[in-house]
Design brief:
Number of strands: 25
Radius of gyration: 19 Å
Strand order of the largest sheet: 9-10-11-12-25-21-20-15-18
Distance between the termini: 26 Å
Largest sheet: 9 strands, antiparallel
């Protein structure tokens, strides 16, 4: 599969240390990593350890950004204000911003608390950045058990690998859900193309952003998504039931930007836009609450970390300027 080939290429890449710098801008501390041949650049804000810029050089050696409002961390006057929100411990929404987990209360808003944490400086390796959040930095009503979080960003000449890891310090199993909420910039939503791989999907219906329990089986032949863009503000929560090659593509025909997303490890994908000039194609390891709420550990799609163990997963982003 493509992801395996990309992984092998990354492992065999030259070990030249990549250029790294940090800067302060508009209330953000930004970590900027460029690959060794200076053709791919990642910018991460320590506010939420969020990627706020992913740029690649075109044939004219000009930098071309791929994320929504790429590199702009000023407050957006209207619409979605993020670029690629990191979702961790739980994702999407919990009903009434409150849930029960083994006798403990979890409280929080959309996409959990990661987005509101200011991370310490990352560990800088030869090809990537590693951000860590200790359980000691997490409040008991944010998440009640001792589970540490590690987020890694690894560059090579082809693209970016984003890796999640959770280390369970408890003597019993723990539960989390997680993912990334990346918005890919397009000239216009009307012209954007989202290509989906062939396979059988399950759409989880979620009126008001909470699961109703209704599931629609979809057999998609592969190619442009079969959903109206006008419906994207309602979100499409899709379980990758039997989708062998989990490669999604976002294309902007006007600028010739193409982003290939290797979700080989992800069980779910969410498609969303608020109608502005971006499309979110989100790898997810979990789903929102049901309207009839279940205990946190019984949430549909929840991931289990063995006692004293580690849970790891990730995905690839491969940006191209095809002209």
């Amino acid at each position: 599969m493509h992801g395996t080939l990309f992984y092998l290429k990354r492992q065999d890449a030259a070990s030249t240390k990549m250029p790294y710098e940090t800067t302060e801008r508009d209330g953000h501390t930004l970590d900027i990593l460029t690959n060794a041949n200076k053709t791919l650049r990642l910018t991460v804000s320590r506010n939420g350890a969020e990627p706020v810029g992913l740029a690649k050089k075109n044939a004219a050696a000009d930098w071309v950004g791929f994320l929504w409002r790429d590199g702009d961390v000023t407050k957006n006057p209207s619409g979605w204000n993020n670029h690629s929100t990191v979702m961790g411990y739980y994702i999407h929404r919990i009903l009434n911003e409150k849930t029960q987990y083994r006798g403990h209360v979890i409280r929080g808003g959309t996409h959990s608390f990661i987005r509101h944490k200011v991370f310490d400086a990352p560990e800088v390796g030869e090809s990537g950045l590693v951000y860590k959040l200790s359980a000691k930095s997490i409040g008991p009503e944010e998440y009640p058990f001792q589970v540490d979080f590690t987020l890694s960003y690894t560059l090579d000449d082809a693209g970016l690998r984003i890796g999640f890891a959770f280390d369970n310090r408890e003597s019993t199993e723990s539960h989390v859900s997680f993912g990334l909420h990346p918005g890919f910039g397009v000239t216009s939503l009307a012209d954007a193309v989202v290509l989906m791989p062939k396979g059988k999907y399950r759409r989880h219906i979620a009126p008001g952003n909470f699961l109703s329990g209704e599931i629609v089986e979809l057999d998609i032949a592969g190619g442009p998504m079969p959903f109206a863009k006008s419906d994207l503000p309602g979100s499409f929560l899709l379980e990758l039931a039997t989708v062998p090659e989990r490669m999604f593509v976002v294309e902007d025909p006007v600028t010739q930007r193409r982003t290939t997303l290797d979700f080989s490890e992800a069980p779910y994908v969410t498609l969303w836009s608020d109608g502005n000039d971006f499309v979110c194609v989100e790898p997810c390891w979990g789903l929102p609450d049901h309207h009839e709420q279940r205990a946190f550990e019984d949430k549909l799609g929840i991931q289990t970390i063995p006692a004293g163990g580690r849970l790891e997963a990730g995905f690839y982003v491969l940006p191209e300027v095809v002209a």
